[in-house]
TrEMBL record:
Keywords: Signal
Protein name: Extracellular solute-binding protein
Superkingdom of source: Bacteria
Keyword Signal recorded: yes
Gene3D superfamilies: Periplasmic binding protein-like II (3.40.190.10)
Organism of origin: Streptacidiphilus cavernicola
Amino acid sequence: MKRKIAVAAALASVLTAAACSSSSTAGSSKQATLSTDGKGKTINVWLMQDAQKGWPGVVDAAKKQFTAETGANVNIQWQTWTNYSTKLDTALLSGNAPDALELGNTQTAKYIAANSFVDLSSVKDKFDNSSSWLDSLAASGQSADHTKTYAIPYYAGARIMIYRKDLFAAAGVTTPPTTLDELTADLTKVKAANSKVPNFSALYLPGKNWYTAVSFGAGTYGVNNVIAKSDGSKFTGTLTDPTFIQGIQTWDTLQKNFSSGGTTVDETTQDALMAKGNIAAIIGNGWEVGSVTDPKTGDPSLASKLGTIAVPGTTAGQPTPAFLGGSDLAVPTHAANPGLGAEFLRIFTNTAQQTALAKFAIPNNKTLLPTYEAVSDVNKAAGAAANGKTWFIPNSQFWSQASDEVALQTAFSAIAAGGDPTAALTTAQTTIIGDLNGG
Protein backbone atom coordinates (compact mmCIF):
# COMPACT_ATOMS: atom_id res chain seq x y z
CA MET A 1 0.00 0.00 0.00
CA LYS A 2 3.05 2.20 -0.13
CA ARG A 3 2.37 4.98 -2.54
CA LYS A 4 2.76 8.62 -3.29
CA ILE A 5 -0.16 10.48 -4.78
CA ALA A 6 1.11 13.02 -7.25
CA VAL A 7 -1.33 15.91 -7.46
CA ALA A 8 -1.08 18.32 -10.37
CA ALA A 9 0.14 21.77 -9.37
CA ALA A 10 -2.74 23.40 -11.22
CA LEU A 11 -6.04 21.98 -12.39
CA ALA A 12 -7.20 22.15 -15.93
CA SER A 13 -8.84 25.53 -16.42
CA VAL A 14 -12.36 24.21 -17.00
CA LEU A 15 -12.26 22.03 -13.90
CA THR A 16 -10.98 24.94 -11.82
CA ALA A 17 -13.73 27.18 -13.10
CA ALA A 18 -16.34 24.58 -12.27
CA ALA A 19 -15.01 24.18 -8.75
CA CYS A 20 -14.75 27.91 -8.12
CA SER A 21 -18.28 28.53 -9.30
CA SER A 22 -19.78 25.85 -7.09
CA SER A 23 -20.98 26.27 -3.56
CA SER A 24 -19.48 24.63 -0.49
CA THR A 25 -22.03 21.85 -0.80
CA ALA A 26 -21.68 21.40 -4.55
CA GLY A 27 -21.89 18.07 -6.29
CA SER A 28 -23.53 16.50 -9.30
CA SER A 29 -27.33 16.72 -9.42
CA LYS A 30 -27.35 13.42 -11.31
CA GLN A 31 -28.83 10.77 -9.02
CA ALA A 32 -27.42 7.27 -9.06
CA THR A 33 -29.31 4.16 -10.06
CA LEU A 34 -28.18 0.57 -9.79
CA SER A 35 -28.56 -1.30 -13.06
CA THR A 36 -28.32 -5.02 -13.79
CA ASP A 37 -29.23 -4.59 -17.46
CA GLY A 38 -25.84 -5.20 -19.01
CA LYS A 39 -26.25 -7.91 -21.61
CA GLY A 40 -23.79 -7.33 -24.44
CA LYS A 41 -22.11 -4.39 -22.70
CA THR A 42 -18.63 -3.86 -21.31
CA ILE A 43 -17.90 -1.33 -18.58
CA ASN A 44 -14.54 0.33 -18.05
CA VAL A 45 -13.20 0.60 -14.50
CA TRP A 46 -10.04 2.39 -13.39
CA LEU A 47 -8.31 0.78 -10.43
CA MET A 48 -4.86 1.34 -8.99
CA GLN A 49 -2.13 -1.26 -9.37
CA ASP A 50 -2.21 -1.69 -5.57
CA ALA A 51 -5.07 -4.14 -6.16
CA GLN A 52 -3.39 -5.81 -9.13
CA LYS A 53 -0.30 -6.50 -7.04
CA GLY A 54 -1.93 -6.99 -3.65
CA TRP A 55 -5.41 -8.49 -3.99
CA PRO A 56 -6.12 -9.49 -7.60
CA GLY A 57 -8.36 -12.32 -6.40
CA VAL A 58 -10.74 -9.77 -4.89
CA VAL A 59 -11.03 -7.97 -8.21
CA ASP A 60 -11.54 -11.23 -10.13
CA ALA A 61 -14.28 -12.37 -7.75
CA ALA A 62 -16.11 -9.05 -8.13
CA LYS A 63 -15.85 -9.22 -11.92
CA LYS A 64 -17.19 -12.77 -11.96
CA GLN A 65 -20.17 -11.93 -9.73
CA PHE A 66 -20.91 -8.75 -11.67
CA THR A 67 -20.96 -10.56 -15.02
CA ALA A 68 -23.14 -13.34 -13.62
CA GLU A 69 -25.70 -10.87 -12.26
CA THR A 70 -25.73 -8.28 -15.05
CA GLY A 71 -24.52 -10.00 -18.21
CA ALA A 72 -21.93 -7.25 -18.70
CA ASN A 73 -18.17 -7.67 -18.87
CA VAL A 74 -15.66 -5.60 -16.94
CA ASN A 75 -12.54 -4.08 -18.48
CA ILE A 76 -10.16 -3.17 -15.64
CA GLN A 77 -7.73 -0.48 -16.71
CA TRP A 78 -4.86 -0.50 -14.20
CA GLN A 79 -3.56 2.89 -13.13
CA THR A 80 -0.56 4.26 -11.22
CA TRP A 81 -0.58 7.15 -8.80
CA THR A 82 2.09 9.06 -10.72
CA ASN A 83 0.38 11.90 -12.63
CA TYR A 84 -3.00 10.30 -11.96
CA SER A 85 -4.71 13.62 -11.18
CA THR A 86 -3.68 15.01 -14.57
CA LYS A 87 -4.96 11.91 -16.37
CA LEU A 88 -8.23 11.99 -14.45
CA ASP A 89 -8.74 15.71 -15.11
CA THR A 90 -8.25 15.12 -18.83
CA ALA A 91 -10.65 12.16 -18.94
CA LEU A 92 -13.41 13.94 -17.04
CA LEU A 93 -13.15 17.07 -19.16
CA SER A 94 -12.94 15.29 -22.50
CA GLY A 95 -15.96 13.05 -21.94
CA ASN A 96 -13.85 9.89 -21.97
CA ALA A 97 -14.36 8.99 -18.34
CA PRO A 98 -14.62 5.36 -17.23
CA ASP A 99 -17.82 3.96 -15.75
CA ALA A 100 -16.27 3.70 -12.28
CA LEU A 101 -12.92 4.67 -10.81
CA GLU A 102 -10.66 4.75 -7.78
CA LEU A 103 -8.99 7.86 -6.41
CA GLY A 104 -7.14 8.89 -3.28
CA ASN A 105 -9.36 10.22 -0.53
CA THR A 106 -7.39 13.47 -0.40
CA GLN A 107 -8.29 14.05 -4.07
CA THR A 108 -12.03 13.52 -3.85
CA ALA A 109 -13.27 16.93 -2.66
CA LYS A 110 -12.21 18.87 -5.74
CA TYR A 111 -14.09 16.50 -8.06
CA ILE A 112 -17.22 16.59 -5.94
CA ALA A 113 -17.13 20.39 -6.04
CA ALA A 114 -16.68 20.30 -9.81
CA ASN A 115 -19.83 18.14 -10.25
CA SER A 116 -17.69 15.33 -11.63
CA PHE A 117 -19.31 12.43 -9.75
CA VAL A 118 -22.80 10.95 -9.62
CA ASP A 119 -24.73 11.48 -6.38
CA LEU A 120 -24.85 8.04 -4.71
CA SER A 121 -26.88 9.15 -1.67
CA SER A 122 -30.11 7.48 -2.78
CA VAL A 123 -28.46 4.07 -3.15
CA LYS A 124 -26.01 4.28 -0.24
CA ASP A 125 -28.07 1.90 1.91
CA LYS A 126 -27.76 -0.75 -0.83
CA PHE A 127 -24.02 -0.97 -0.15
CA ASP A 128 -23.04 -3.57 2.45
CA ASN A 129 -21.91 -2.19 5.80
CA SER A 130 -22.55 1.42 4.78
CA SER A 131 -23.80 2.14 8.30
CA SER A 132 -20.39 1.18 9.72
CA TRP A 133 -18.08 2.76 7.14
CA LEU A 134 -14.89 4.14 8.67
CA ASP A 135 -15.72 7.67 9.78
CA SER A 136 -12.98 9.71 8.12
CA LEU A 137 -12.93 7.59 4.97
CA ALA A 138 -16.68 8.01 4.52
CA ALA A 139 -16.45 11.76 5.15
CA SER A 140 -13.92 12.20 2.35
CA GLY A 141 -16.52 11.09 -0.20
CA GLN A 142 -19.26 13.40 1.01
CA SER A 143 -20.31 16.93 0.15
CA ALA A 144 -18.74 19.66 2.24
CA ASP A 145 -21.79 19.75 4.52
CA HIS A 146 -21.72 15.91 4.79
CA THR A 147 -25.34 15.56 3.63
CA LYS A 148 -24.67 13.72 0.35
CA THR A 149 -22.42 10.85 -0.71
CA TYR A 150 -20.53 11.00 -3.99
CA ALA A 151 -17.77 8.45 -3.40
CA ILE A 152 -17.72 5.08 -1.66
CA PRO A 153 -15.00 4.11 0.83
CA TYR A 154 -12.70 1.39 -0.58
CA TYR A 155 -9.85 0.72 1.87
CA ALA A 156 -7.76 2.62 4.38
CA GLY A 157 -4.38 2.99 6.01
CA ALA A 158 -3.52 4.31 9.48
CA ARG A 159 -0.25 5.23 11.16
CA ILE A 160 0.93 3.22 14.15
CA MET A 161 3.93 3.05 16.46
CA ILE A 162 6.61 0.59 15.31
CA TYR A 163 9.16 -0.15 18.02
CA ARG A 164 12.15 -2.31 18.85
CA LYS A 165 10.93 -4.85 21.39
CA ASP A 166 14.52 -5.84 22.16
CA LEU A 167 15.61 -2.29 22.99
CA PHE A 168 12.54 -1.70 25.14
CA ALA A 169 13.05 -5.03 26.95
CA ALA A 170 16.73 -4.27 27.57
CA ALA A 171 15.60 -1.06 29.26
CA GLY A 172 13.21 -2.99 31.49
CA VAL A 173 10.05 -2.34 29.44
CA THR A 174 8.35 -5.64 28.65
CA THR A 175 4.73 -4.48 28.38
CA PRO A 176 3.72 -2.05 25.60
CA PRO A 177 2.51 1.36 26.84
CA THR A 178 -1.23 1.97 26.76
CA THR A 179 -1.29 5.69 27.59
CA LEU A 180 0.83 8.75 26.81
CA ASP A 181 2.04 8.85 30.40
CA GLU A 182 3.19 5.25 30.16
CA LEU A 183 4.80 5.96 26.79
CA THR A 184 6.75 8.87 28.26
CA ALA A 185 7.92 6.78 31.20
CA ASP A 186 8.97 3.93 28.90
CA LEU A 187 10.80 6.21 26.48
CA THR A 188 12.68 7.75 29.41
CA LYS A 189 13.97 4.30 30.36
CA VAL A 190 14.90 3.43 26.78
CA LYS A 191 16.72 6.74 26.35
CA ALA A 192 18.71 6.23 29.55
CA ALA A 193 19.67 2.68 28.59
CA ASN A 194 21.07 3.92 25.27
CA SER A 195 22.69 7.16 26.44
CA LYS A 196 26.03 6.17 24.91
CA VAL A 197 24.61 5.48 21.43
CA PRO A 198 25.37 8.42 19.09
CA ASN A 199 22.30 10.28 17.79
CA PHE A 200 19.95 7.86 19.51
CA SER A 201 16.19 8.46 19.30
CA ALA A 202 13.94 6.62 21.72
CA LEU A 203 11.08 7.89 19.50
CA TYR A 204 12.01 9.49 16.19
CA LEU A 205 9.70 12.42 15.40
CA PRO A 206 10.96 14.33 12.34
CA GLY A 207 9.76 17.91 12.42
CA LYS A 208 8.11 17.93 9.01
CA ASN A 209 5.93 14.88 9.69
CA TRP A 210 2.83 17.01 10.05
CA TYR A 211 0.45 14.03 10.02
CA THR A 212 1.84 12.85 13.35
CA ALA A 213 2.01 16.32 14.87
CA VAL A 214 -1.60 17.14 13.95
CA SER A 215 -2.71 13.79 15.38
CA PHE A 216 -1.49 14.89 18.80
CA GLY A 217 -3.35 18.18 18.37
CA ALA A 218 -6.51 16.27 17.48
CA GLY A 219 -6.01 14.24 20.66
CA THR A 220 -6.84 17.28 22.77
CA TYR A 221 -8.91 19.39 20.36
CA GLY A 222 -11.08 16.59 18.98
CA VAL A 223 -11.30 15.00 15.54
CA ASN A 224 -13.98 17.24 14.05
CA ASN A 225 -12.89 20.42 12.26
CA VAL A 226 -9.19 19.66 12.63
CA ILE A 227 -7.08 22.41 11.00
CA ALA A 228 -10.12 24.43 9.92
CA LYS A 229 -13.90 24.59 10.21
CA SER A 230 -16.60 25.92 7.91
CA ASP A 231 -19.87 27.70 8.61
CA GLY A 232 -21.09 26.87 5.11
CA SER A 233 -19.75 30.00 3.45
CA LYS A 234 -16.19 30.38 4.69
CA PHE A 235 -13.50 28.60 6.66
CA THR A 236 -11.89 29.73 9.89
CA GLY A 237 -8.77 28.24 11.40
CA THR A 238 -8.54 25.93 14.41
CA LEU A 239 -4.75 25.46 14.48
CA THR A 240 -4.34 28.16 17.11
CA ASP A 241 -7.16 26.96 19.36
CA PRO A 242 -5.69 26.55 22.88
CA THR A 243 -6.88 22.95 23.12
CA PHE A 244 -5.15 22.12 19.82
CA ILE A 245 -1.96 23.85 20.95
CA GLN A 246 -2.08 21.74 24.12
CA GLY A 247 -1.75 18.57 22.05
CA ILE A 248 1.00 20.09 19.94
CA GLN A 249 2.93 20.90 23.09
CA THR A 250 2.75 17.20 24.03
CA TRP A 251 4.15 16.29 20.62
CA ASP A 252 6.80 18.98 20.97
CA THR A 253 7.87 17.67 24.39
CA LEU A 254 8.19 14.13 23.05
CA GLN A 255 10.14 15.39 20.04
CA LYS A 256 12.58 17.45 22.09
CA ASN A 257 13.11 14.83 24.79
CA PHE A 258 13.33 11.67 22.73
CA SER A 259 14.06 12.49 19.06
CA SER A 260 17.59 13.23 17.92
CA GLY A 261 17.86 15.61 14.97
CA GLY A 262 15.43 15.49 12.11
CA THR A 263 13.78 18.85 12.81
CA THR A 264 14.08 19.92 9.17
CA VAL A 265 13.22 16.61 7.47
CA ASP A 266 10.06 14.57 6.99
CA GLU A 267 9.36 10.90 7.64
CA THR A 268 10.47 9.51 4.27
CA THR A 269 13.88 8.34 5.54
CA GLN A 270 12.83 7.07 8.98
CA ASP A 271 12.62 3.40 7.95
CA ALA A 272 16.20 3.31 6.72
CA LEU A 273 17.37 5.21 9.80
CA MET A 274 15.60 2.77 12.11
CA ALA A 275 17.26 -0.15 10.34
CA LYS A 276 20.68 1.29 11.24
CA GLY A 277 20.00 0.63 14.92
CA ASN A 278 19.89 4.00 16.64
CA ILE A 279 16.12 4.46 16.65
CA ALA A 280 13.92 2.56 19.09
CA ALA A 281 10.52 3.65 17.75
CA ILE A 282 8.88 5.48 14.85
CA ILE A 283 5.33 6.43 13.94
CA GLY A 284 4.45 5.27 10.43
CA ASN A 285 2.20 3.16 8.25
CA GLY A 286 2.02 -0.56 8.89
CA TRP A 287 3.83 -1.40 5.65
CA GLU A 288 6.91 0.36 7.03
CA VAL A 289 7.65 -2.74 9.09
CA GLY A 290 8.52 -4.42 5.80
CA SER A 291 10.60 -1.44 4.75
CA VAL A 292 12.65 -1.48 7.97
CA THR A 293 13.39 -5.18 7.47
CA ASP A 294 13.83 -5.09 3.68
CA PRO A 295 16.98 -7.05 2.65
CA LYS A 296 18.02 -4.32 0.20
CA THR A 297 17.32 -1.15 2.15
CA GLY A 298 16.87 -2.29 5.75
CA ASP A 299 17.90 -5.01 8.17
CA PRO A 300 16.17 -8.41 7.90
CA SER A 301 17.50 -9.42 11.34
CA LEU A 302 15.06 -6.97 12.92
CA ALA A 303 11.99 -8.89 11.71
CA SER A 304 11.49 -10.73 15.00
CA LYS A 305 12.43 -7.71 17.07
CA LEU A 306 9.77 -5.24 15.90
CA GLY A 307 6.53 -4.66 17.74
CA THR A 308 3.53 -2.56 16.74
CA ILE A 309 0.81 -0.75 18.68
CA ALA A 310 -1.65 2.03 18.05
CA VAL A 311 -0.12 5.32 19.21
CA PRO A 312 -1.15 5.60 22.88
CA GLY A 313 -3.57 8.34 23.87
CA THR A 314 -4.35 10.07 27.13
CA THR A 315 -6.65 7.23 28.23
CA ALA A 316 -5.99 3.50 27.99
CA GLY A 317 -7.91 1.95 25.11
CA GLN A 318 -8.29 5.28 23.32
CA PRO A 319 -5.38 5.78 20.89
CA THR A 320 -4.13 9.15 19.77
CA PRO A 321 -6.36 9.99 16.77
CA ALA A 322 -4.88 8.80 13.48
CA PHE A 323 -5.07 10.39 10.07
CA LEU A 324 -7.04 7.95 7.95
CA GLY A 325 -5.69 7.84 4.42
CA GLY A 326 -6.89 5.53 1.70
CA SER A 327 -8.93 5.27 -1.46
CA ASP A 328 -12.48 6.05 -2.53
CA LEU A 329 -14.54 4.77 -5.47
CA ALA A 330 -16.84 6.90 -7.62
CA VAL A 331 -18.97 6.98 -10.77
CA PRO A 332 -18.21 9.89 -13.14
CA THR A 333 -21.17 12.07 -14.02
CA HIS A 334 -20.63 11.54 -17.74
CA ALA A 335 -19.92 7.81 -17.59
CA ALA A 336 -21.37 5.84 -20.49
CA ASN A 337 -22.91 3.27 -18.12
CA PRO A 338 -23.34 4.96 -14.72
CA GLY A 339 -25.92 2.48 -13.42
CA LEU A 340 -23.68 -0.48 -14.22
CA GLY A 341 -20.69 1.38 -12.82
CA ALA A 342 -22.50 1.92 -9.52
CA GLU A 343 -23.58 -1.73 -9.47
CA PHE A 344 -19.99 -2.87 -9.95
CA LEU A 345 -18.90 -0.71 -7.01
CA ARG A 346 -21.70 -2.18 -4.89
CA ILE A 347 -20.48 -5.71 -5.67
CA PHE A 348 -16.80 -4.76 -5.40
CA THR A 349 -17.33 -3.44 -1.87
CA ASN A 350 -19.80 -6.06 -0.61
CA THR A 351 -19.14 -8.11 2.50
CA ALA A 352 -17.59 -11.02 0.62
CA GLN A 353 -15.10 -8.86 -1.28
CA GLN A 354 -14.26 -6.66 1.71
CA THR A 355 -13.71 -9.76 3.86
CA ALA A 356 -11.20 -11.03 1.32
CA LEU A 357 -9.62 -7.58 1.05
CA ALA A 358 -9.21 -7.49 4.84
CA LYS A 359 -6.34 -9.96 4.53
CA PHE A 360 -4.31 -7.25 2.80
CA ALA A 361 -5.60 -3.80 3.82
CA ILE A 362 -7.92 -2.10 6.28
CA PRO A 363 -11.47 -2.72 4.99
CA ASN A 364 -13.86 0.16 4.49
CA ASN A 365 -15.99 -0.59 7.56
CA LYS A 366 -15.67 -1.22 11.29
CA THR A 367 -17.74 -4.41 11.16
CA LEU A 368 -14.93 -6.27 9.39
CA LEU A 369 -12.02 -4.80 11.36
CA PRO A 370 -11.74 -7.96 13.54
CA THR A 371 -11.13 -9.98 10.37
CA TYR A 372 -8.33 -7.60 9.39
CA GLU A 373 -6.83 -7.48 12.88
CA ALA A 374 -6.68 -11.29 13.13
CA VAL A 375 -4.16 -11.51 10.28
CA SER A 376 -1.10 -10.13 12.12
CA ASP A 377 0.13 -8.00 15.00
CA VAL A 378 0.71 -5.14 12.57
CA ASN A 379 -2.91 -5.37 11.44
CA LYS A 380 -4.07 -5.49 15.05
CA ALA A 381 -2.33 -2.19 15.73
CA ALA A 382 -3.55 -0.50 12.54
CA GLY A 383 -7.07 -1.82 13.09
CA ALA A 384 -7.14 -0.38 16.59
CA ALA A 385 -6.07 2.99 15.19
CA ALA A 386 -8.75 2.89 12.46
CA ASN A 387 -11.41 1.80 14.93
CA GLY A 388 -10.61 4.70 17.23
CA LYS A 389 -11.20 8.37 16.61
CA THR A 390 -9.69 9.46 13.30
CA TRP A 391 -9.29 12.79 11.54
CA PHE A 392 -9.07 14.09 7.99
CA ILE A 393 -8.05 17.26 6.17
CA PRO A 394 -10.64 20.03 5.61
CA ASN A 395 -13.25 18.77 3.14
CA SER A 396 -12.63 21.45 0.53
CA GLN A 397 -11.68 21.49 -3.13
CA PHE A 398 -9.26 24.29 -2.34
CA TRP A 399 -7.04 22.27 -0.02
CA SER A 400 -3.59 22.47 -1.58
CA GLN A 401 -0.94 19.84 -1.13
CA ALA A 402 1.62 22.20 -2.61
CA SER A 403 0.70 25.10 -0.34
CA ASP A 404 -1.14 23.95 2.76
CA GLU A 405 0.90 20.84 3.50
CA VAL A 406 4.11 22.80 3.01
CA ALA A 407 2.81 25.45 5.41
CA LEU A 408 2.21 22.76 8.05
CA GLN A 409 5.61 21.16 7.44
CA THR A 410 7.28 24.55 7.85
CA ALA A 411 5.37 25.29 11.05
CA PHE A 412 6.13 22.00 12.77
CA SER A 413 9.74 22.09 11.65
CA ALA A 414 10.05 25.51 13.28
CA ILE A 415 8.40 24.27 16.48
CA ALA A 416 10.67 21.22 16.61
CA ALA A 417 13.68 23.53 16.25
CA GLY A 418 12.57 25.58 19.25
CA GLY A 419 10.01 27.99 17.83
CA ASP A 420 6.84 29.11 19.57
CA PRO A 421 3.93 26.83 18.63
CA THR A 422 1.30 29.56 18.53
CA ALA A 423 3.40 31.86 16.38
CA ALA A 424 4.38 29.12 13.93
CA LEU A 425 0.83 27.80 13.60
CA THR A 426 -0.58 31.31 13.18
CA THR A 427 1.58 31.73 10.10
CA ALA A 428 0.50 28.35 8.73
CA GLN A 429 -3.14 29.11 9.47
CA THR A 430 -3.01 32.34 7.48
CA THR A 431 -1.81 30.45 4.42
CA ILE A 432 -4.31 27.63 4.79
CA ILE A 433 -7.37 29.79 5.39
CA GLY A 434 -6.36 31.98 2.48
CA ASP A 435 -6.33 28.89 0.26
CA LEU A 436 -9.58 27.41 1.60
CA ASN A 437 -11.44 30.69 1.13
CA GLY A 438 -9.77 31.52 -2.16
CA GLY A 439 -12.45 30.09 -4.41
